[in-house]
Prior knowledge:
The protein contains 16 helices and two strands. By secondary structure, the protein is an all-alpha fold. It has one domain: Farnesyl Diphosphate Synthase. Strand 1 (93-94) and strand 2 (97-98) form a beta hairpin. Helix 2 (12-25) packs across helix 5 (65-89), helix 5 (65-89) runs antiparallel to helix 9 and helix 12 packs across helix 14. The longest helix is centred in the middle third of the chain and has 26 residues, at 161-186. It starts with a helix and ends with a helix. The mean pLDDT is 89.
Amino acid sequence: MTTLDQIKAPIKSQLNEFSREFKKSMKSKVPLLDTITAYMVKRKGKQVRPMFVFLSAGMLGTITKKTSRAASLIELLHTATLIHDDVVDESYKRRGIFSLNALWGNKIAVLVGDFLLSKGLLLSLENNDHELLKIVSNAVQEMSEGELLQIEKARKLDIEEKVYFEIIRKKTASLIASCCASGAASAGANPDQIEEFRKFGENVGIAFQIRDDLFDYQQSTNKEKPSGIDIKEKKMTLPLIYMLNKSSFTEKRKIIYQIKNKNRDPKIVAEIIEKVKKSGGLEYTSEKMDNYRRAALDFLNNFPDSDYKNSLHDLVEYSTSRTK
């Protein structure tokens, strides 16, 4: 598979400039805040979200300062939501690194999240990027709605396939959709084009989340067993929903009872995973994922060949074909 460095090649200079500008955008006059934001910058990930922004703009022929501001806006608002999520979930690590609330406590973490949120809003308002602000604010709203919908449904474990797709569309796919839409908007795209890029990003995001859900039921190596983390956390993902739909009424009630009350029992979790596999749930889920990935890749065929198009194609493949 193509590496991230190869995918970044057409936008390497723009990403480097973006990284410098993003650091500046988080500067403040409070030493403690600068210490915390410096820690956050050091632990930033693979730059996948900015890559979607820049490559979408590049596909339309124009990468501008506005494109870099779009990437910064998404990173600022998204980072703010992640910080708040860690506080709510009482998570002390993210990707193996200590979270802000683990190091500085909940109060400071929430305030830092608020600070980043305000920085993103001001960045857009000071540059009259109202369209970008609307695109990204809509995504943040949908992410919040998706989280709340998932929490609501987790209490009864009555998620149907339609609701599952609504949750992941809002909770996960809306962010990548906003990356692609804002990238297109920064390049001067018309409303129809912006919507097409939004839909493209949404398809990528849905495929990405379905792939993530499959991890729970698959072995990473010959020695490792499936983790079953989603079952332990009472998350109703597509493989599980499919299996329940194929089960008798009595069996379905039994499995739901086990997920509610015995979800920490390794033996029970292993039994549920085995039932999902035997039901054909993994094959069904993989097919659904491929449909969304194919829809995203088909969209790219509408554009002339370019380095940007090739990298965006490879980024879709990378995002939806990765291993844990």
